Amino acid sequence: MAARDGTDRAPEAASDDDVALYRDMLLIRRFEEKAGQLYGMGLIAGFCHLYIGQEAVVTGIEAAARPGDQRITSYRGHGHMLAAGMDPAALMAELLGRETGVSRGRGGSMHMFGREAGFWGGHGIVGAQVPIGAGVALAQKQQGRHAVTFVYFGDAAADQGQVAETYRMAEMLRLPVLFVIENNSFAAGVAGAAARSSLLDRARAYGLPVQSVDGMDVRAVREAARDAVLHARAGKGPVALEARTYRYRGHSMADPAKYRTRDEAARVRAARDPIDGLRRVLLEAGLATEDDLRRIDREVKDVVSAAADAARAAPEPAAETLHAHVVAEG
Amino acid sequence: MATEIRMPALSPAMEEGRLSRWFVAEGDAVEPGDVIAEIETDKATLEFEAVAAGRLDRILVPEGGDPVKVDTPIALLVPANDATRPAATAAESAAPAPAPVTRPRPRGARAAAIPEPGWPAGAHLSPLIVREALRDALTEEMRRDESVFVIGEEVGMAEGPYRVTQGLLDAFGAARVIDTPVTEAAFAGIGVGAAFAGQRPVVEFMNLSFALQAMDQIVNSAAFTHYMSGGEIACPIVFRGPNGAAGRVGAQHAMCFAAWFAHIPGLRVVYPYAASDAKGLLKAAIRDPNPVIFLENERLYGKSFEVPALDDHVVAFGRARIWRSGGDVTLASYGPAMAATLEAAEALADDGIEAEVIDLRTLRPLDVDTVAQSVTRTHRLVTVEEGWPQGGIGAHLAAEVTRAAFDWLDAPVASVTGADVPMPYAETLERAALPCAEDVIAAVRQVRYR
Questions:
Q1: Position B177 in a domain
Q2: How far is B310 from chain A (nearest CA, A)?
Q3: With CB atoms 3.0 to 4.6 Å apart as the test, which of B175, B258, B315, B318 could cross-link to B280 if both were Cys?
Q4: Which of A106, A169, A324 is nearest residue B186 as measured by Cβ atoms?
Q5: What is the pLDDT of residues A284-304, one digit of tens each?
Q6: B193 close contact with A: CB closer than 8 A
Q7: A14-183+209-307: CATH number
Q8: Domains in chain B: how many in total?
């Protein structure tokens, strides 16, 4: 597979599946907006990294997944869990530190897992999920499954040494991995530092086929992901896919985002917003009416509100359970 | 005049070597740098070069025989022009094969002195060195459970930097015995991911000091995930390799990590001394649903112990082993420090002082009860370890036993530890940095006030 840019392709005809993409992206957007509100109210604490602006990446990639495929990501993982089909109420409860949370209140925003959804975290150490994801892929291979593992990380994590080590190992072992580099243009506290090598040059140096795609166009991401997944599922080894995207909010809720102006974020939002973009496609292709989209918006809002209400009403873990789950029994 | 060529020490912990092949015959001229022999150690097969010019006068140790101790004369070299005596024929000169080398029994390991052998009475015992006990444990567990695999540097083709994985690649193939590049963080993390997803990886570090490169994966990922996920994700993985002082390797390959890892909730930490425990605890480690740090020591790999011939010898975590009973003082130790501890107990017995010697074996969970129980009989405790004093296992045990058995103690607990310095290279300094039997005896006299 040669390096190329997914945006160079002729646009695919819109289809009914695209309405589902719209709903999936909107769910992430509204969930994250709600998380931001609850954080502001003091109901969510600690570090909370929102995915707003990047919704097309995970939604497009997951549209290329088959049942049984696996995924892992960083601390900016709410969108990935929703895209993998995890219950928004269990996620919201975890953000609020409740016993009904997906990690029973022991993990918080950065440390959530969903075995059934094939979601292996939720990792708070930048880049650490990359070798772990390769290990999940190794397990699939050893167990004789034809699953692909999606390993998501950001442009800043790509600088970590263990990412380079993992490219080397994954290529050597021909692991069925799709490395998804979510280039959101900003590391924590700084604008993307100019590097002499591009993110993909580094993966290519380890022998991986690479591809770059407009991460604000969910349909382009889906198409690029389908090609890459075919390659990995055929046993030809790992692939690296860069999705060029844009993070609207700070690195975390605590980031004042001094590295860009408000105007810049607003300009990107007006011109490239992934949800608005797909909305225009759906309307022009006649796949949905304004009413249809309003109905979807209402449904999504209801799901998110119900999740938040349930989380606020749920009990916090009892102090007596402090020592539970330190070690696995059996 | 003839000079002796002696069996060289080709690695830090080498004690003996086997002359697998001579490349020169008696009467041959040799130049410095000529490869004259091939020597097989328990770690590797290496070529041996002449250091001086001359003529090989006599071969004292023929090829293919039993191993001989380091420093044993293996050949005689005379000046090239020395014609004072003709070269003997090989038949005449074949030196009698050296007496079979018998490894000294570990002192204090007499069967009669072990009150709790830890296996069924009447089990057949046979001698086995630690590295082979570890290899047997890996082999048995890989046969038993196909989700077990081994990953690390030189574990496959090279059969292990210390030959612990000898024979595994042939037996199980490259899909389950995975050679890695020098990528500690990646292969540790790959092990963690595979363990999350249902495999049982055994990750080998060529040296535990290299695990520092992978500490993030061991602690943040392996140890914490079960808790962070509210019990959703277990991480059944073993991280193993040689730990602590090896012999003249300097600070960066000689650190003891026992206390470091034992500090971390979510990890199990094991440091066996005897071959039977190495085998039984490694099997338990592979079956445990938690991440296990399995510490080995280069000086112990070649040491022989009695191992029970059982189909499935598994040693449970959290139980110390009493090596000898005595009523005068309790000595609690673990890992390679057990050697000095047992030696001290033997010497003390000659002076009429009966020490109870306890091998802690697992450091997390730590069997404080067995030590506290012993102290209720002996009223005195000395801890012995090779790690550093501050925040050490001995310090922790002293605090726990003081709390549990304060009324029975007749003296403050004494701790014998490695010196509080990075491990030095020079022989004199290294010897001074590691606890020896004399240090243990001095500590016993201190807690006995005489």
A1: yes
A2: 23
A3: B315
A4: A169
A5: 999 999 999 999 999 999 999
A6: yes
A7: 3.40.50.970
A8: 3
